[in-house]
Design goal:
97 residues
């Protein structure tokens, strides 16, 4: 194929292009659509949901370990980061801003 020099030559070349599908293409496509049943989609959705749920559980476990290792307990104050605060410190800290 020679190199095309301008858009007119390219337009002429593309206008002569006639794509054709192989014999039985439409039948193969329709067979695949008919064979793709809802049951397979439910199984795929269940697998995706299971992986998302397991990663969420893993993230929660990592969060619990990090709180326990940094604060030394599982109290509500440890989760909020208030273990070493006295009752007056949050008020004083908020006044600094």
């Amino acid at each position: 194929m020679s190199k095309l020099k301008n858009t007119d030559e390219l337009s002429g070349f593309l206008s002569g292009y006639n794509p054709a599908f192989t014999d039985g293409f439409a039948n193969r496509v329709m067979d695949k659509i008919e064979n793709n049943n809802v049951k397979n989609k439910d199984i795929e959705f269940y697998n995706i949901f299971r992986w998302v749920a397991l990663s969420g559980v893993a993230a929660i476990i990592i969060l619990l370990f990090s709180v326990y290792f940094t604060e030394g307990s599982f109290t509500a104050d440890a989760f909020y980061g208030l273990v070493n605060y006295t009752p007056d410190e949050p008020i004083i800290a908020s006044l600094n801003y």
